[in-house]
Specification:
3 helices; 159 residues; globular; alpha+beta; single chain; Lipocalin
Length: 159
């Protein structure tokens, strides 16, 4: 039988993680900053980049990044090969994308699979949070953390 002191440490860690995930009544996350209801109008013209993901079954292909550029009602996304684009809205903290169109570059199989995975992830209505200037897309065990990157905006033309 575990001793009481052995139970306290895991319980304290679990409680700390739970509290870190909660937002207090002021809309401020105790750990990270101001949590804002996402609005594509506020993101229009901005590009965000992730150079990694949290997923127990997947990593980004080496040397690639996920870049997302927003307009008032659409998004462009690139993960190292083809550019995906389509209509976008936010519905109850979920990113809702219409049919994603794709450029037709010939890429190696790993990049093609990454594009397919990203398309599936994005069209599954991932949870969409904005904390200060960072964006978080999450679904099941996957989290993509995106940071503003104005240098990438030259790669996209969102309409």
């Amino acid at each position: 039988m575990p001793t009481p002191s052995r139970l306290v440490v895991p319980a304290a860690v679990a409680a700390g993680l739970l509290l870190a995930a909660c937002v207090d009544g002021t809309g401020r996350d105790a750990t990270y900053g101001l949590v804002v209801v996402p609005d594509l109008t506020d993101l229009s013209g901005d590009t965000f980049v992730a150079d990694g993901i949290v997923d127990p079954d997947r990593e980004l292909v080496s040397g690639t990044r996920i870049a997302m550029s927003f307009a008032t009602d659409s998004v462009n996304v690139n993960a190292g090969c083809n550019t995906l684009s389509g209509t976008a809205t936010i519905d109850d903290y979920e990113l809702v994308l219409g049919h994603l169109r794709s450029t037709r570059k010939a890429c190696d199989q790993a990049l093609e699979e990454q594009d397919q995975w990203l398309t599936s992830f994005l069209t599954a209505r991932p949870h969409f949070d904005r904390v200060d200037d960072d964006l978080y897309l999450s679904r099941d065990d996957t989290v993509i953390h995106l940071v503003r990157d104005d240098d990438w905006s030259v790669h996209f033309r969102v309409r």
